[in-house]
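Chain A, query sequence.
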Amino acid sequence: MNAGFLEAWQRSDATCFVFHDVDLLPEDDRNMYSCPPQPRHLSVGVDTLGYKLPYFLLVGGVLSVRGDQFLQLNGYSNMYWGWGGEDDDMGYRIKQSGLSITRPPYHLAKYTMIRHLKRRPLTWKVRGKLLRTSGRRYRLDGLNTLHYSLLALHRHPLFTHLLLDVGTPPENLVKLDAH
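Chain A, predicted structure.
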């Protein structure tokens, strides 16, 4: 996500960025995909979660954020490989940075999740260690530590397709799982 953001930030005049899980479909087109003054969690109610927000810091699913705010947050952590945790880490980043999580009215912010197999998750042990240190790490892990290569770029009328190589999981993540 960080590499995609940086490429879009550098190649366009976009100021609003929406990070959207591909498996979520909005149920109401009045839920505005825009960037108000604070980061906005757009997917308040998801069918597989009983249309309830499980906890306040949840920003997973669909999140809109202004480009300057994403820079302030230092983007997403680069430590999450596999499935799970990166969105919770972002929630902590938003809180730690002094920004607020806003949400549209519940009745407009409902989504249906397309059924699919999830990727292999990080172990609970690793995910827990990363989340416990999120507030301390957010300035040290993110856009400022990102390494990637742009392999291909294809411009189309409505979108730009980027092929990026983000490498392999960092060695210190493997060590974290061993301890």
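Helices lie at 2-11, 67-72, 86-96, 124-132, 134-137, 171-178. Residues 94 and 100 are 6 Å apart (CA to CA).
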